[in-house]
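TODO from last week: model Glyoxalase.
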Amino acid sequence: MDAYTGVLEPRVGYVQLQVSNLEHSLKFYQEMIGFKVLERDEKTAKLTADGVVPQLLLKEEESFVKRPSRTTGLFHFAIVVPTRQDLALSLLHLVEDGYPIQGASDHQYSEAIYLADPDNNGIEIYVDRDSNKWIRNENGGYVGGTALLDVDNLLSEAKQGKWNGLPNGTRIGHMHLQVSDIEESEKFYVEALGLDIVAKDTHMLFVSKDAYHHHIGMNIWAGKGLPAPPENALGLKYFTLHFTEEEYKSAKLNLEQLGYNYREDNYQISVKDPSGNNIKILLKD
């Protein structure tokens, strides 16, 4: 695994969520998070940070059920902003509007705040530290952690700025999923899809491309062997991964050889992981 270059590769393209009320969700994601509407109709909306690339798709599910807590699915999706000042301005904006923050953490390689949308979908907003300061472990991955974020120090970055929504350069940085089994997840994401392990213990697994600290995190903190939620449950519908042509062909061959069912249409692979999370694998531009 080569060293991370510091370039934010668009490995996680966009996320689609099923929501209970599109208007309520749009209000939240525009006014609190800072996305812009790229396209919308009566029941769906595409949201973007830069006005060009979609990063979040919302679909109102009329016959929705709330996602049961002890099921697989979204733990949080993570929005990475370009600078520490951008994170500080987002935090200050949320605090000033009285929106509840669920956590604020220093992960060594990044600084992050956590909250939830109106349907209780978990969201992380974070900024990466300089990759030269990331600490390697003996297995070639990265040493992370969950220390308290120095909020006062972070907010000092906001003094010379003004919040105007999510800035250009914002991406979906990673996904964090509740899964049913760590070993089964490792077989799928590492052996089949070809991602690299950057951190692992008995209850969690982080994997990535490009030596990043993680593009997909997985945990069984809510228990092992959890079932998938109902199809009409609120929350994650699918997310996309962007692969090079070589990675795409390798993943397709590995999926076949390892016996995973998938569908391919116009150079797009649709597949479920062993926990029932839907993924679409697309060719990178």
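Done. The CA atoms of residues 4 and 210 lie 6 Å apart.
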